[in-house]
Amino acid sequence: MEKTRTDAFPITMDSLERKETICIFGTGDFGRSLGFKMLQCGYSIVFGSRTPRMSSLLPNGADVLSYSEAAQKSDIIIITVHREHYNFLTELTEVLHGKILVDVSNNRKVNQYPESNAEYLAQLVPGAHVVKAFNTISAWALQSGALDASRQVFVCGNDRKAKQRVMDIVRGLGLTPLDKGSLMAASEIENYPLQLFPMWRFPFYLSAALCIFFFLYCVIRDVIYPYVNKNEDSTFRLAISIPNRVFPITALTLLALVYLPGVIAAILQLYRGTKYRRFPDWLDHWMLCRKQLGLMALGFACLHVLYALVIPIRFYVRWRIRNLTVTQSKLGYLTLILCTAHTLVYGGKRFLSPSILRWYLPAAYILALIIPCTVLVIKFILIMPCIDKTLTRIRQGWERNSKHSKSALNAKSDI
After folding, report:
1. Cα dihedral sign for 268, 271, 272, 275?
2. How far apart are CA 270 and CA 387, in angstroms?
3. pLDDT by residue (tens digit) across 101-146?
4. Considering only the top CATH level, what class is 19-194?
5. Do 17 and 40 contact (CB within 8 A), yes or no?
6. Does residue 408 sit in helix, strand or coil?
7. Contact status, residue 127 vs residue 97, Cβ threshold 8 Å
8. What is the pLDDT of residues 351-374, one digit of tens each?
9. Domain boundaries, the chain
10. Cofactor(s) for this protein (predicted)?
11. pTM over 0.70
């Protein structure tokens, strides 16, 4: 049976710059999707299969050979087969010696084996340089276009040059590589896709901490303080009044935290004069969680809506609700401005009034204004023409200390 290929994906290779040849072992869904994506990005692809004549649905423009023949065509071989089928690689030890083997496999459960799949592969083929990568990208994401956090590819390996070549390929596919160190990190990387909502952990803990902090803060001011000083019982506020105050304050704070990492990233890029240096890990993780933070803010705003519908406490509640329900959109900054402005108007002259202090503690909404006002002030500075012009060029590829800086500054760069 002659091998067949699909023409379902139109590829115009003549318009793309030819890059190095990549070998892919395996013709399953992920192997085909990765091969098609690489062909789109200008790479030459050769598939290795145990039955090359029977392989079907492969992208047009890729060759299909036996494992041994395909391995001789490239120095980089991507293994897209399951761990239980790795034994055939022992027969190719001589052919694979000195080559880069990219392990993309995952397990069905956390810590399924004593060692990671990548470490097991390195033991089977000791003469090869094993690199772990692409296991956090799905075949669907490769076909439809990876977005947001799914653009990030964790990479680890013991050989620095081999790891760097794989990271260059990741960038060539329009994805973002993240160096996780040596091959010892492969177990952590392989467990990552098995975690339940891994990007929600930080937003959830942060939201819970903010909610508890503002709740206790309001309890001290509105329940404990009246009881100690005036012997008034205000415990009825614990059920409705205080939660209805905590929810919008938490929502506003979370909304501000959605945009704060972008502001910090812009400042770092201006300071460094380039976009090609990695952000600190904490900032990188924070930026990846922005969507989740925005959704958490929306959740707290919805709780505020629910409380306001059940018991209409004050007339201004409806206006506060409207300002807090729009997040993570192109109008995000406008939403942040409206929410902050509403809180400022709500506070009015009471901001500076000593009568509002209780045990020298200001109102909770005053604390909620610290982060939003900081973000808006810095953002206003960043959009000033003299700063925005430089920041835009940096994000387009210009580097302050690069030899190409002068041409880019004169708008003659090809980037």
Report:
1. positive
2. 8
3. 999 998 888 778 889 999 999 999 998 999 999 988 888 778 776 5
4. alpha beta
5. no
6. helix
7. yes
8. 656 667 777 777 777 777 788 888
9. 19-194, 199-319+329-400
10. heme b; FAD
11. no
